[in-house]
Structures are given as C-alpha cells and as structure tokens.
Amino acid sequence: MFTILSCTILAVYLVALKFGNGEETTPGSCSFSGSEPQLLFSNNTHILLTALDSDNSRVLVETMTSSVSFVDYHFTDGSIYWSDQNKQTISRKTCPLGDENSIIETIIQNSKAMGIAVDSLNDHLYWADEDRAAIKRSRLNGSSIEVILDESLQSPVAITIDTSNRWLYFSDHGRHTIEKCKFDGSSRQTLISDDIQTPYGLALDLNSKRLYWTDSALYHIKSSNLDGTDVKLVSIDRSSLVGISIVVMGIDLYGSYMYVSNLGTGIYRIQKNKQNAVPHRISGTHHAAYGVKMIKSHSDTSDATTMKGSARQMIILFAGILFVEFQTFISI
Fold first, then answer.
1. Alpha carbons 117 and 202: distance in angstroms, whole number
2. Has residue 106 got a pLDDT over 50?
3. What share of the chain is helix, strand, coil (3-state, %, to 5)?
4. Suppose 171 and one of 138, 155, 158, 210 were both cysteines; which one would form an S-S bond, judging by CB atoms 3.0 to 4.6 Å apart?
5. Does residue 178 contact residue 195 with C-beta atoms inside 8 Å?
6. How do residues 223-242 score in pLDDT, each as one tens digit?
7. For residue range 287-314, what is the model confidence (pLDDT) as tens digits?
8. By the 8 A CB rule, do 59 and 48 touch?
9. Within 10 A of 146 (CB to CB), how many other CB atoms are there?
10. 320: how many CB neighbours lie within 10 A of its CB?
C-alpha cells in the first residue's frame, strides 16, 4: 500500500536532506523559507529576493559594476551561482539567505561565461564560454575543468540540462541554431536551424516532452518536440503590449504557464497552450530580469543527496524566479 502526499508550496522544504559526507541536516536558514511566492533575480548589478506580490526586495548579492545576466541555484546547499560578462567570471555565494555576509567565491576566471547550469544531482557546473566558442564543465568549486564541446561552435549562449537523461541543450547565436548533446559531448544533434536568430532562453517541459525557446531578434516564442520536430509558434495576444518594445529574453515553465522576461519591461506570465494567451506582468521594469532557468531534482538517491522517502523538487529561477513543488511518496 502506498500513501501519496502531494502539495505545491512556494519556498518551503518539507524533507530532511543528507549530504554526500553523511551529515544529515534539517531545513535551515540556507533554504528559502516562508509561505509566499518569492523571486530570485538579477538586475545586472545585484541579485535580489522578493515576494511575488511585493516590491520590497532583499539584496542577496551586490556586485555593483558587474554585468550579471544568468543566475542558477543549487537546491541542496542553497548556494547561488552567476556569470559576469564584464569580469569574465563565474561566482557563487554559499547560504546567501542565512548569512548575508557569507563570502563570495570566484570559481571560474578568464571566461566570458554566458548561460550556466548547475547539476545539483552530480555537483557539476556547465557553462557556455562565448569568447572561446566552447561549452565547459567543472566541479562546483571550479576545479577539474573539462571542455565538452569546442568544434563547430561560434557563439554559444543559453544552456539547459535534462539531468535524468543526461542531455545538454544549448543555443548558438553565431550559427543560429539550437542543439543538444550528451553530458560528455557525444551524440550531438542540431534541433532547430530554420527561422531562428538569437535564441536567448531555453526551457524544457519534460512532462509533455517539448523544448521552448525565445528569440530576442525575431521577437517570438516557439516550442518543438525534444528532437526538434513539430515546431509551433506560441500564440500571444499582443494587444496589451501596445507601445512596449518586445525583446523576449529568458523563459521558464511552471505548470500550465510560461514565465518570460522582456528586456526593459519585466517578467510576464503566459499560458502555454492557449490561443491568444494574454501576458500578465508580474514584475515591472525595475526588476530587469534576463536569463530564466528551471532546475529539477531527482526522486532517486545519489551520492550527492539522500532524501528521506522520495521527493521531487522544482525550482524556477528568473535569473531567477523561484518556485518549489514537492511530491512525496511514502511506502507503508
């Protein structure tokens, strides 16, 4: 007999976590707390946290003169990672929620990192190095750097990963493509090469087995099957956007909605599968979000995390907006 407990929460951990060193810990100040929706986002010079329905923001990282566009989050230890185009670095801050004075570590230097992806299951960091036209991987502390791909690339930008199936999806603004490969760089495939210019945001809907992307030059959002077939243009009612310059950037998915950042005007919630879906702005121009990233944990046990019972967590970062969803399956 199985009892299935399912709840959707925003920013509350309900299970104990065990780290790879065997130390067991209960949810604490390093995890997102509170019962209200929260946003984790970059406005180019700061990384902030705010409630979804509030303009009061809490600064987690202050980078001042930097150019931070892509942010990601490790779901187990609460660390925040970001790429900095001006400094050509990737940095992280451990436990930014519990200790605002925690040290900022620069873990990757001399790399014009664009999109980044944190593999919370295997404790790896992936990034697109635009200047060196390569996709790279390292440990979370920046050690053991490996080149995953460096052939037939021009300007890689966005990255998203399917950890369960070990696929890495990426966009190349120079080649005007969206491609995918295995985590070791093998089995490379071009998925999208027609009617595409600058795909800035990528998001995976693994339930419906579809890939979504934004094109900041062609001002549209599209989706396809995971093999690049059945390309569809997302139908949006633009009447509410009259007078607004449309430059769609990041995208992520939660439930039946897309969350899309538009350069200079904010973040919009849009229904995925509705004709003439009306965009609803949830964050204004003072929250200039760029990259959007969704991270999924796994219900299976790994060396990195051991969870009591079996839990699935969904984290959405609108460079980033954060949501958490748990489905706990308890065997009796």
1. 11
2. yes
3. 0, 50, 50
4. 158
5. no
6. 999 999 999 999 888 777 77
7. 566 766 553 433 333 333 333 233 333 3
8. yes
9. 13
10. 31
